[in-house]
Amino acid sequence: MSSVNTSAQISPELKKRIRQDVQSMHAYAIQDSVGMVKLDAMENPHRLPAHLQAELGRRLGALALNRYPDGRVNDLRRALADYAGMPDGFDIMLGNGSDELISLLSLACHVPGGKVLAPVPGFVMYAMSAQLQGLAFVGVPLTADFELDEAAMMAAIAEHQPSIVYLAYPNNPTANLWDDAVIEKIITAVGEQGGLVVMDEAYQPFSSKSYLDRISRHSHVLLMRTLSKFGLAGVRLGYMMGPKALIAEFDKVRPPYNISVLNYECALFALEHQEVFAAQAADLVQQRERLLQALRAMPGLTVWNSDANMILVRVNGKQEGEADAAGLVFERLKAGGVLVKNISKMHLLLSNCLRLTVGTADENTQLLATLQKAL
């Protein structure tokens, strides 16, 4: 077997073949969570009951893995449409997670001068996918309380006339829902200049509201969801609903067989047992309220309301002379075996902020005890 020097630097000649903007980017980093209470990625902490694990294993074991995915994927599309209550005249498109759908939207909308616009701080993939597909990204800062800045959004839409506007409902990482009246004004303004609005409802299982009951009012609005927060983060399955004509255009850039037989069979199985996942979501909503109450009682924290399975907190003041109070608390939590997300460097508005995923009752007890010590 020949050996390859994997530590060698890329040659200058080869580097010329790689886009300069890609070379300046950082790959998406996943924190090492071995042996930790993992509360950093907004996952559903509950696993399937043992008898359902066994049943799913038998079902997956019987699949014809030697064959490409078949028409069974359309069974999943219909099942998801029924589960979501998709309106008449709409269609549904599947992606390998919402990330792939976001990338495909950028790919399809890459026209001369095309731009993507979204409030910031927000989901990082909106900007990353736009950049990778050659579209300019326009980030419009939220207010200090993480609400939509109506005047700034309207001005940016008028100036940039974006091809795509993303509105996360609720938002990541701030976990809040925005004012419905402002959302409608934004949607109307984007429609008047010929753009597309994508309502991203990744955290819908934990939210008190959805845009689904209003989506049929508009021919330029898509609704995007994922089964990751439903409880299938490892399966990687996102879906997008919209008017049939719109979905048909975006479906043209979808790679063939982008949903594997394992993906769609797991998803179908989960939908057949959706009451199990609904009970898990209800438990997490209860745990969220418990966490909110306990966190608000802790001196040194500012805590924001949440309609998702995460909570945004700010560590107030500087600790032990450190400018990065959130970083210090993050490291203390990590040393105590609890992994959360330090987002204090993501955006100026998130200075000294941590994002805490809602876990199981036991995980949340450990989080609160360790955080109390860390503060």
Descriptive terms for the model:
Aspartate Aminotransferase, domain 2; 4-stranded antiparallel β-sheet; 16% strand; 7-stranded mixed β-sheet; 14 helices; alpha/beta; 375 residues; globular; single chain; Aspartate Aminotransferase, domain 1
Q: Can you lay out the helices and strands and say which pair or pack?
A:
Blueprint: H1 12-15, H2 20-23, E1 37-38, H3 50-61, H4 72-84, E2 90-95, H5 97-108, E3 115-120, H6 124-132, E4 136-141, H7 150-160, E5 164-168, H8 180-192, E6 196-200, E7 221-226, H9 228-232, E8 238-243, H10 244-251, H11 261-272, H12 274-296, E9 301-303, E10 310-315, H13 325-335, E11 338-339, E12 341-342, E13 353-357, H14 361-374
Parallel strand pairs: 1-11, 3-4, 3-5, 5-6, 6-7
Antiparallel strand pairs: 2-8, 7-8, 9-10, 10-13, 12-13
